[in-house]
Amino acid sequence: MNSYPRSIEDEFHESFVVCTLCLRVLRGASWVEAEKVILEVRSFELASMPSLHNGLCTKCSEMIQLRRSDAQRAEAA
């Protein structure tokens, strides 16, 4: 094992879940604006971008469920 200091690019192997509707990013247990994550992680300074995975935040998921239930009620009427 090498004892020399490694660059941030060598140690950065983080991936993020991004809401496909609003583009917020899951950080821990919270969905935050992408701009905040970009600044925190400083991804613009990395040699390569972190992995991004599709997801659906709680707010957008609730919005979809509400629209579906409204549509089902309208069909039943």
Explain this structure.
The chain is of the alpha+beta class and 77 residues long. Helix content is 40%, strand content 21%. It has three helices and four strands; from the N terminus they run αβββαβα. It has helices at 8-11, 34-41, 58-76; strands at 15-19, 25-27, 30-32, 51-55. Strands 1-4 form a two-stranded parallel ribbon. Strands 2-3 form a two-stranded antiparallel sheet. It is elongated and about 55 Å long.
**SSE order, as H and E?**
HEEEHEH
Would you tell me the structural class of the helices and strands?
alpha+beta
Give the strand line-up of the largest sheet: 1-4
Which segments are poorly predicted (pLDDT under 50) over 5 or more consecutive residues?
1-12
Shape label: elongated
| Major β-sheet annotation | 2 strands, parallel
Number of helices: 3
Count of individual beta strands: 4
Instruction: Tell me, rounded to a whole number, the average pLDDT.
Output: 82
Helix content: 40-55%
Instruction: Assess the beta-strand content as a share of residues.
Output: 15-25%
Task: From the alpha carbons, calculate the radius of gyration and give it in angstroms.
Answer: 19 Å
Distance between the termini: 69 Å
Keyword list:
elongated; 77 residues; two-stranded antiparallel sheet; 3 helices; disordered N terminus; alpha+beta; two-stranded parallel sheet; 21% strand
Reconstruct the topology from this structure.
Layout: H1 8-11, E1 15-19, E2 25-27, E3 30-32, H2 34-41, E4 51-55, H3 58-76
Parallel strand pairs: 1-4
Antiparallel strand pairs: 2-3
